[in-house]
Sequence to fold (796 residues):
Amino acid sequence: MPQPRLPEPSATPGKRSANGTTELPALAYVQLLGAPVQLSSQGSRGSRAPDLPQHPGWLDDETLLLDPDPAPDARLHVPRPLIGSRVVALAVPVAVVGMVGAVAVTLLTGHGPKFDQLTSHQANQPPPAGPPAGPLTGHGLTTVTFPTYPGLSQRGVFESVNRVVAYGRTIVATAQQTGAGVTRQLFYVSTDGGASWQLAAAPGNPPPGHLAPLLAGGPGGWVAIGPQAIWTSTDGTSWTLAATHGVSQLPGDQIWVVTKTAAGFLAGGSDAGGEGVVWTSPDGVTWHRQAMGPHVLNIAFATARRNDILIAGLLAAGGSGAWLSTDGGTSWTRVAIPPGHGATIAGVAWDAEGLLIVRDDAKAYFSNNGIAFHPTAIIGGTDGLRPRVVKGDANGLVVAGQTLAGRLVAYLSTDNGATWRPTATLGNAAAESVVGAAVAPGDHVIAIGATAANPVSQQAVFLDASAGTVRAIALPGANIPQLFVNALAEAGGTQIAVGGADGYPAIWRQSGETWSLVTQAGQFGTQGLAALTAVTHGPSGWLAVGSGLILTSPDGVTWRAAGGTAALAAADLLAAAAGPGAPGASAAPGTHAGYVIVGQQAWFSADLKTWTQASGLGGGEMLAVTATSRGFVAVGAVTSSANGQPAVWTSPDGRAWTRAAPATPAGAVLRQVAASGNRVVATGATAAGAPLAELSTDGGFTWRQVALGSAAPGTVITALTASPAGFTAAGISGAAGDQRIVAWTSHDGAVWTRILVGDHGGTRRITALAASGSAITGVGQIGTPRAELTVLWSSH
Fold:
């Protein structure tokens, strides 16, 4: 293979783009789903211009969504119930996270899964008869409606649109959305030049996650790529997850841009040593890697017209350069760009007549042959445009950016860059960002991006702009409200569920066959995203807790926030239990009934009015708690240990706790606990990610490991409860996107029987289990690329 021919440096480049054109040098790439999509500068390197990034901006973002797969020995976070805006996390082996699947992503804004229910022996009634089982649920599961707060469906949902590409009358945009604990890759498509839009099909219910923010397409096919995903489409209307890895699997490689070429596709980026790399592919799935040499730091922009491929990138000697290939990317010829007194390339694009280069001082250069570029215009004139998006297609050329006044605007050219006409203002740079654009038929521009993220939401920006108007495009099927149930309890015929809805704590009460939302949005003063993680009932009434939230109720209808000390108000609370007393057993003589709430601290109250902080945690964090006839048992981890070793605590009164020695193997994690009489079962996962169960027959003082039977790959226990008849655990098995709910039952906690629940497909989980007499009820979700269903399961 001939080596690329790269003449010595000259001036300029910037960043990545998607098909047929490219984008901004100084754009800090989309912080997907949890942070703003913004135009912001990156740090400089060497003698290059200070605005020029040395790697894709998405790698600077505080999100795990686009991070490469971790090293095999990495210690990561295990998913936990949603607590407000965060998923509380504990260091556990990466294998455990892997078993949870692609949804096991924890963002700083908390848009992560809620697999691990911290349940005690809370009781519940059998569910009402719901709609008949359908193709998504299968037998054994029924769908049920849990109301959300009116008019707040955008709260708790984070979406950004990252690229848009037009070819002919087909326009495709790639977007990412998270809400209700599931992250989805979305494709929006128009086949009539932007007049109408639909959510593109994704046959086979591909798993959530697998985000692909870079997009290219045209005659011969389409591709969307991300660090852990390659999606392909023949026409842009239906997309297939073709690979669960990125373009390059070489550590340190970073993909900045992808574009459609006459022979397939070309991607550009950099390697671990900070040198430019290009990849070529005939089909978007198999790629050939080609290093560009040590004097090229990256390939940030790429576009193609017929057999001409134009790329641009940063030079080690300073500034940026551009190169042309006419043989499918095998060899490259340096393109001479007029010097710009420090100006750098802001993007490249194509139209029906040739190729365009735009510098960051808004000067445009056009070439009919890709070699000789001549100046055409200064885009924006006195407005002082700072170009951040450079795109083009057969309909024309578009450059979008920010003016000196902070307005977002796009300029359109249909005469090879000779003249540029502004659209109406797209928005305010302080409130939103435009990170992509495409020219639609009829001198229209489709501009995409996202609003500036706040702690509770981020909305997609999707605009149709012309010279006189800007119209917001309503995205079809994009809004899946945030709703999740974390815990259930029953007492005196009243059934209560708690969790979150639209980013607020939520409590539902069952009446007949209907679940009613008995709380109001903002009722408890929470400003950020918040949720409840546990509920229990005792002699003084109901108790529900979450991070920084303690709610009480005498009847399950009227709820109020409990008072207490500043330390209690700031406590990170995960689970609750009322006791002593367990299903099938009376409290032992001398014990005193009350309530325990646990997390990084433990607290006890006899009356839900006065709380006492407990002692004896010893640097640990309690993840779940249950009541026995002798007192209380909690499981969790000693967080002061470098490896987060599992731990068990017992307490006769909820005030003083003593560490017990679990039979847990090294590296395992215990996440659920339940008691029936003096028998206590704790469940979790081994260091290898296999499901784990332990049994104590003396109220939690001594333990032995018990077998759950053979487990299919990807099996994770998600919930546990106890009844007078024994124990029930629930979990999931299978790969993400093709999961099935699994249940285990045992009359004594020692011998277990495995049951398959419902059909397989999508992302499935039971997030809470509870008992009412010998009947067991479970609640959970089924997630697909287009929907999130709440489901009930009952067992007698």
